[in-house]
Write a structure and sequence with these properties.
Helix content: 55-70%
Distance between the termini: 133 Å
Strand content: 5-15%
CATH topology of one domain: Serine Threonine Protein Phosphatase 5, Tetratricopeptide repeat
Largest sheet: 3 strands, antiparallel
CATH class of one domain: Mainly Alpha
Order of helices and strands: HHHHHHHHHHHHHHHHHHEEEEEEHE
Number of helices: 19
Radius of gyration: 51 Å
Number of strands: 7
CATH superfamily of one domain: Tetratricopeptide repeat domain
Structural class: mainly alpha
């Protein structure tokens, strides 16, 4: 407060400040009027009317940021008294003067109190923040708008676009998924297709969208695209029950009735085997609406609705018994199936056990005990390591009758001579030296064994 206003403060009350400020404003001096209005607000801070006139004077003084702050206080005052229309009008004035003061922490409670109609303010504030490069403020205002108007898919799509531009892909997928749910609830299939395709471009494994998008394609008359999306679903979630149901519906829509019924039969049988008979009945009930004017299709569905009885077991083969009541074992009871490969496991069930009944005791034999034991593999030939050779001195060789002896430190070595080839079968002897001995010994009537 300047000296003039301070002097006025000592001589006048709030009403006098306001009157004096009004005269200065009419005289074309909004700067003096602003000081006097501020002095009046020091004594009556909740006076919305005086604060409004102060903000008007600040605008005339070209102090836009200060004026925007005062207008925002006026809006908060109106909202506190549930004068929501006046509050929203003042908020638009704030955004026109200086959007930077219109931030989440300052206006969130007020806009929540106003309700869904305040979404427009959130969107306008977010655009202003984003245009000025204040990404965090813009994102917060968009989130506030989505919170205030939770049933508006456009806010979610705008949020997703902003998150995608900031590389916040996880948040973008969440907002697109919520937008898709809202569009489906509103029956807007065309926009849902756009949102779903955008979502799958960010997250190709989004299971909810992969399941719902084929249904929407069927509703809008594009069964070929539905089948294409189902192939993506089967890659992500093989054996998915919802996927098989949609696939059967797609085939029914395009007129491939036999294929549709085949898929339905497989699906319903699988559900019944796993104990989900209620789910199977619900799928068949939905299938009745696929082709309302097709009597043959309805008849086939009725046949699927009646569960098929399991095939009867084969009759038991009578077995002869002896006078004492002992069952005679038939050779057919011991028939063993072909042995699997080495990397396969043999699964034994009750038929793999054979009971041999004696008068004293019953013996159970496993069928695998009756399989022939494969012969052991042939032994590998021993690898003979060549021994180092050593020269033989002719003086160390003694001939006695039919034996040849070698005198040496390593003991006695047996050498065998082949009579046909007259070759010496040995490794550590000098063949040049012993060949004479071999010829001498082989001259006899039979092969000789030379011990050297």
């Amino acid at each position: 407060m300047n000296g003039y206003a301070q002097q006025a403060f000592t001589a006048h009350g709030p009403g006098a400040y306001e009157a004096e400020a009004h005269r200065w404003a009419l005289a074309g001096r909004p700067d003096h009027a602003a000081h006097l209005y501020a002095a009046a607000l020091d004594q009556r801070p909740d006076d919305v009317r005086v604060r409004m006139m102060l903000a008007d004077c600040l605008v005339r003084c070209n102090e836009m940021a200060a004026a925007a702050r005062e207008y925002l206080q006026v809006a908060l005052g109106y909202a506190a008294h549930r004068r929501h229309a006046e509050a929203m009008a003042i908020c638009h004035r704030v955004l026109q003067l200086d959007p930077s003061v219109f931030v989440y922490v300052a206006v969130a409670d007020m806009l929540r109190g106003i309700g869904r109609s305040a979404r427009v303010l959130c969107a306008r504030a977010a655009e202003a923040h984003l245009a000025a490069g204040r990404m965090a403020d813009g994102l917060n205002m968009l989130r506030l708008g989505a919170e205030i108007d939770a049933r508006n898919p456009e806010v979610r799509r705008r949020l997703a676009t902003l998150c995608r531009s900031q590389h916040m892909l996880r948040d973008a997928v969440i907002h697109l998924s919520e937008a898709g749910r809202l569009l489906l609830a509103a029956g807007n299939n065309a926009e849902y297709v756009e949102v779903a395709e955008e979502l799958l471009s960010l997250d190709p494994r989004h299971l909810e969208t992969l399941r719902e998008l084929p249904r929407v394609y069927l509703r809008v008359g594009e069964p070929q695209r539905a089948v294409a999306k189902l192939s993506d679903l089967m890659r992500v979630q093989p054996g998915d029950t919802v996927g098989y149901e949609i696939l059967a519906q797609a085939f029914a829509v395009i007129g491939r009735i036999d294929t549709s019924l085949s898929v339905l039969e497989r699906l319903v049988s699988e559900l019944r085997v796993t104990g989900r008979t209620k789910q199977a009945a619900e799928i068949l009930a939905r299938a009745e609406r696929w082709r309302l004017d097709d009597a043959a299709f309805a008849t086939a569905l009725a046949a699927l609705r009646a569960p098929k009885a399991p095939p009867p077991p084969p009759p038991a083969r009578p077995r002869p018994t002896t006078a004492e009541g002992t069952v005679v074992l038939d050779i057919r009871d011991l028939v063993v199936p072909a042995a699997p490969a080495h990397d396969e496991e043999v699964a034994l069930d009750a038929t793999d056990l054979v009971d041999l009944v004696d008068r004293e005791v019953t013996v159970s034999l496993r069928v695998d005990m009756l399989r022939a034991v494969p012969p052991p593999p042939p032994p590998r030939p021993a690898v003979v390591t060549p021994q180092p050779t050593s020269p033989i001195d002719i003086d160390d060789i003694e001939i006695e009758d039919t034996q040849v002896r070698r005198v040496g430190p390593s003991g006695v070595t047996n050498l065998v001579f082949d009579e046909d080839s007259a070759e010496l079968l040995g490794q550590d002897e000098d063949l040049q030296t012993l060949r004479m001995v071999a010829r001498h010994l082989l001259a006899g009537p039979a092969p000789m064994v030379a011990t050297l």
